Amino acid sequence: MEKILHISIAVFAVLGASLIVGHNAMPSENLMPGEVDVWGSEEEGFDGGGGDDGEWCEHSMWRSQGISGRVPVSVDSFGAVGDGVTNDTQAFIDAWGKACSTKNAVFLVPEGGRYLVKAVKFNGPCADNLIIQISGTIIAPAEPKDWDPKLPRLWLTFSKLKGVKIQGGGIIDGSGSKWWASSCKVNKTNALTIDKSSALWIQDLTFQNAQQMHFTISHSDSIRVYDVQVTSPGNSPNTDGIHITASTDIVLQNCTIGTGDDCVSIVSGSSNIKMKNIVCGPGHGISIGSLGQGNSMGTVIGVVLDTATLTGTTNGLRIKTWQGGSGVVRSVRYDNVKMYNVSNPIIIDQFYCDSPKTCQNQTSAVKISQVMYRNIVGTSKTPQAIKFACSNTVPCSNIILNNVNLQLENGNTPDTFCNCATGSDYGFVQPSVDCLHSESNSRCQAAQNDDEKETEDLAKQEEERGYSAHTEL
């Protein structure tokens, strides 16, 4: 086991040389398409050269843009009233048609107005250099019965856009209280969705009281989200803050999220996801998954969370998968996280079952490996602060903890639970995770074999690429 630990530390150190966080970084030739190395250190450029609050993207099309010298296309000019009562949907549709077809246009939702808009899709592609300036408030119909049956799961959708900036300091209000009272598991409606788009910059917006998920990024790439606030009551069901699905190269930075569900949820088909300066609570924490429901395949590769504060959440850093699924969760790093009065601060759950019926035991599972927790501190509301509930037949491997200090609120040391999880720890780690390299894992021999084979293979790859091994991260 000492051999495995030494190899793990060395490999995870050199993997950082390929961390993709800046526009000049080049992917490793040994990575699968869409996969990134996420084990780098701050000294290796994790902050993108911008210090503690440095931006991770510097592409010219993503830099902040003003609206002077552009062609304003105001929804008011197309008949919008903005009194919160009149249906302004058609005015928005007409203004979008003009703005989308005009170069250097600004689709303008003016400050001070409250615009009632029903479910609508704003489709691209559009002319170059479009800015969507939401300075007022867009509100959804309060009654579920008033919803468009042709768009039962969507409210505001922006689709097939490229190089567009969405900004303005305005508010997206989902008027969700009556939706929460009904079955949100059935009546699923997302407030704002970015779909099939690329190179978008979303900045300085507030999402509140969504019917279900507040802000969804779907089947998109190269999306930057800055200075976004999400707020709903802690008891509002299924109101995920930011939901990422089937998307790659996504950055969330300086976001404050309080909801009744996951602050951030990352699900299948997503890769190269970076989060920095995230404030979460209330809510269910920051989650990867759920994955594998209904014996499906789920894949999430390359996730970094650097600098976050979670307060009073029902989970902290969570990876959740269903029994019977397949696929992988790989290359995940949690760095510099503070948690206050959080239940289940660190949890991997391969037995997730969000169902009124008991889930049957199944042997297949989503494979979870290469997960690092580094510089994690705070207080646990539950006696178990660390829980690795992994599959007997598809165990978790290469779980690494470095400088973790979790206590109960009374100052006592909490417990750790492990089932079929292997890995290593170094530096100060509390509570103890000796179970990661315990003899009790002998019944999960596949996990130990995975650890040794995976780390030795990675070491060999790095040696072939000419990197020298380091002994510290």
Automatic annotation (TrEMBL):
Q: Which PROSITE patterns match?
A: POLYGALACTURONASE (PS00502)
Keyword Coiled coil part of the UniProt annotation? no
Looking up Gene3D superfamilies in the UniProt record yields:
Single-stranded right-handed beta-helix, Pectin lyase-like
Q: Which top EC class applies here?
A: hydrolase
What is the reaction catalyzed? (1,4-alpha-D-galacturonosyl)n+m + H2O = (1,4-alpha-D-galacturonosyl)n + (1,4-alpha-D-galacturonosyl)m
Where do the segments described as Disordered lie? 444-473
Instruction: Give the EC number(s) listed in the UniProt record.
Output: 3.2.1.15
Biological process terms in GO annotation: carbohydrate metabolic process; cell wall organization
User: Signal peptide position in this chain?
Assistant: 1-25
| Ranges of Basic and acidic residues composition bias in the record | 456-473
Which residues are catalytic?
A: 284
Keyword Nucleotide-binding listed: no
Q: Which UniProt keywords apply?
A: Cell wall, Cell wall biogenesis/degradation, Glycosidase, Hydrolase, Repeat, Secreted, Signal
Compartmental location: Secreted, Cell wall
**Sequence similarity:** Belongs to the glycosyl hydrolase 28 family.
**Descriptive protein name:** endo-polygalacturonase
